[in-house]
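Complex record, two chains
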Amino acid sequence: DTEVTQTPKHLVMGMTNKKSLKCEQHMGHRAMYWYKQKAKKPPELMFVYSYEKLSINESVPSRFSPECPNSSLLNLHLHALQPEDSALYLCASSQMGRGSYEQYFGPGTRLTVT
Amino acid sequence: GQQLNQSPQSMFIQEGEDVSMNCTSSSIFNTWLWYKQEPGEGPVLLIALYKAGELTSNGRLTAQFGITRKDSFLNISASIPSDVGIYFCAGQLRRAGGTSYGKLTFGQGTILTVHP
C-alpha cells in the first residue's frame, strides 16, 4: 500500500479566513513533505518533517504553518493567504535512510484564495 | 543550485508509437526518479534508479540512470491513450551529514498527448 490521503480535495477561502489542510499515511514512513504546485509546473518543496520534527523550511511565508501531530499525520494551517497562493498543495511521504528517495504523493488539495 | 533540463517540453504522438524523454543535470545525482501526473491528481512514482548505468523496466516503461550520473531517460513503448499526462524526472543528491536529504530537484516536465 503506497497511499497518501489528503483532505479536503478542494478548498475555497477568503484572504481573512483560517483553514487547514490534512494529510495522512499509513506506510510507516517517518519523513513527510508539503509541496506547492502551479499548473503545468513541477512541485516546489515547502516543508520537510523527519521523525515528527521540522527539518527543512524552504523560506515559506509565515502565513503557512505546518504541524506534524504524529508519525502518520501532517497538517498545513493557512491564515491570511493571498490570491497568488492559489495552487495545488501536495503532501508526500517517504522512508528514512536509503529509501528516503522514493517519495509517494497524495492526490493534492486544490486551493483557491479569493 | 542544481538545474534539471527535461526534454522535450511536449509531445503529440499517435497511439502505438514509442516515446522517449530525457533529463540532464549540470551536476551529479545519486538517485533518479520518474513520475507521471494526470490532471487533478498528484504525481505517481513510475520508476526509481539508484546506480549509474542501471536500466529498469516497469511494464511498457524503461528508464536508465546515465553513466555520468548527470542524466536519465524514460522510454514508453507502444503508447496507449491512458499514457496521457505530464512526466517529471526528479534527481536527488544525498550528501553525508548534509541537509539535502529529502529534497528532490524536478525537471520542468514533458506533456504527453496520445491521439487514438
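Note: Chain B has a mean pLDDT of 92.
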